[in-house]
């Protein structure tokens, strides 16, 4: 009988393999070749098996990351464990950057704290004990101990599962781990979504911000930015232009690539951080969204862990759309790793995309795909899927400038060789809006890169439904 | 050297040869879509290769396409994948591959072999006729459309003062042109023509083939037979860029469609437009206007910097599209590739033989990366 944490982790691996690998991968990673054991038992085992120790403590700050070549890409692992002192263990592929230690009996153990590192990330170990939070109460990438070591963009879970599959496949074939995944992987998935924060460009707050931007430079003795006046007037005359109309444009452009996506609509209270459009435009929006695309709820800012308000928002949207609301993402990514999952689950949310960073692109949970978060009280998985958001439109461009498309390709190309799903959020107002010139063509370029890398489209909902 | 049709297992080698010479990154799935997964089920695949010492050094292919005229549906071939390794030039490999394919065309009763190319001399030597040239209809949405529109004429050239000046003038002209177009679009977009419904096709409508038959009954001549199978292959399964297909319906009766897409160069492309010729209730030009506006607004909403399409000859529908396009803000100019056309013996029996103005041609004929 395995400890519940280990059972949970094993389940996460099985779910991940079912989604991103083929049937053979599923078969070879069964109990015949993969076992989770306490460290002492793992190193004492003398069998042709991959034994993963689950009782090695993990520090909050990652130690000594290093890279290993694997399946046409490079993996990054950290918290190396020393070679066992008893037995005849060989580091593989080499001593300087080992992925495995192999005993002459055939037993393999990982050369890094595989279970510890990943369980820590999947259970929000970096952020559970309140450390720093930003002005919106969020855990930012800037607070992650992985950031210092450039580990934020490492899909550690995906990499680890890929190595497990390759190792088990090798054990099955010839008793030695493979370092490639020939014909075991499915194409990478692209999970697209759009937070409909603004659908009409003439709302009070958007216009007020433009108005302020005209005159703010005067405070610094600089000339006023009059172009804001143009956008103010333009959206006063044609409020849907570059916002609501962009929803149609995004659907059409996705059609051109055979992709689809989820639109998260924001209803409920208005305000600076609230909904910026009246809910009566939502039925019109719903009419534009074809059946293969999904609609979910963008949890309003003031509904964060507020039962009454959240329930009211759900009920209102349910009545407007005439359908159950099962998918969503928090506005401003306001999200609590301990309280949000049971809270969302209580109100019928089954698929959530809130676990991402607002300040950087990256893997908040070290996973590119989906997982069921751990419920420490019940000692099992919550009945909700989390699809961590990896890339936010403006953040990608702000962080990488002209190299944004190359960075995107790099992340997706890596997933092509380790398996996984890249979740990307693109706001309709950023998609095609000359007010934000630096964002023009960005979405199109990302979709072209995805096509060229053979990525297959899934919505958050369709991805998790495949795992039922 | 061995000149023959492609053998099983040579697909990758042919695709690599293409990628090497054109410096592209076409995938094997894209190759298969074009040459083996199309609507032509007969074997062998009409794809000629020159093999020298185990290496592919030349290719020439047909994409079999069905056309329709008043006597029914018939097979033709689009010439594609004309490629000879530069170190093998002067050995008449193109002619030799074509000799093989001419035999194939006769044997499989193709009526015409056609294509679009700037390299007409080689085709001229093979007795192809040059019955026309493609022209452009174009509407700019942004001065950014100038770069892709001028791209072909500047490839391989170092931009001198003249080119830079030309570009500046073109950009300035574009700002004026796009403003005029925007006004025309605005004036036209609210013209209502009754209780018609615009739908986006998620899959081809089974009525498309019937609409093609009606089109030919009315206009005569010939055009691609756009039945549901063809549109599925050509537009909906296209692995490069799929088209957005907007269709106009009267209740559930299909009256016409327009196919457009956003290409990698940021321009919108008007791939195809067809309407019912039944003018008892709706005038064809009204339907054309409605559909062209759908393509304009649709591609503009996708972030296209402009939209371009073809005009080709004096076919009455082509002329109608061109005229309506001008009315709603498109500009026309003569710049494009020559049409090359070879009449097989079967082609001489068809009604459109030797009358290229009887052909209704849109960009859907390109059968390639760009619609």
What is the element layout, followed by pairings?
The complex is a heterodimer of chains A (468) and B (371).
Chain A: H1 4-20, H2 23-28, E1 34-37, H3 39-44, E2 50-53, E3 66-70, E4 73-77, E5 89-92, E6 100-103, E7 108-110, H4 114-122, H5 156-174, E8 189-196, H6 204-219, H7 227-237, H8 244-257, E9 262-265, H9 282-288, E10 294-299, H10 307-321, E11 327-330, H11 340-346, E12 351-352, E13 374-375, E14 380-381, E15 385-386, E16 391-392, H12 393-400, H13 404-418, E17 421-425, H14 428-431, H15 442-452, E18 456-458, H16 460-465
Parallel strand pairs in A: 1-2, 8-9, 8-17, 8-18, 9-10, 10-11, 11-12, 12-15, 16-17
Antiparallel strand pairs in A: 3-4, 5-6, 6-7, 13-14
Chain B: E1 2-5, H1 11-22, H2 28-35, E2 47-52, E3 55-69, E4 72-84, H3 93-107, E5 112-117, H4 120-125, E6 129-133, E7 135-140, H5 146-154, H6 161-188, E8 197-200, H7 208-219, E9 222-224, H8 228-236, E10 244-250, E11 253-262, E12 268-275, H9 284-301, E13 306-311, H10 316-327, E14 331-333, E15 338-343, E16 359-360
Parallel strand pairs in B: 4-5, 9-16, 12-13
Antiparallel strand pairs in B: 1-2, 2-3, 3-4, 3-9, 5-15, 6-15, 7-13, 7-14, 8-10, 10-11, 11-12
Task: Describe the 3D structure.
The complex is a heterodimer of chains A (468) and B (371). With 468 residues, chain A is of the alpha/beta class. Chain A has helices spanning 4-20, 23-28, 39-44, 114-122, 156-174, 204-219, 227-237, 244-257, 282-288, 307-321, 340-346, 393-400, 404-418, 428-431, 442-452, 460-465, and strands spanning 34-37, 50-53, 66-70, 73-77, 89-92, 100-103, 108-110, 189-196, 262-265, 294-299, 327-330, 351-352, 374-375, 380-381, 385-386, 391-392, 421-425, 456-458. In chain A, strands 8, 9, 10, 11, 12, 15, 16, 17 and 18 form a 9-stranded parallel sheet that branches. In chain A, helix 6 runs antiparallel to helix 7 and helix 13 (404-418) runs parallel beside helix 15 (442-452). Chain A starts with a helix and ends with a helix. Chain B has 371 residues and is an alpha+beta fold. Helices cover 35% and strands 28% of the residues of chain B. In chain B, a hairpin with a 5-residue loop joins strand 11 (253-262) and strand 12 (268-275). In chain B, helix 9 crosses helix 10 (316-327). Chain B is globular.
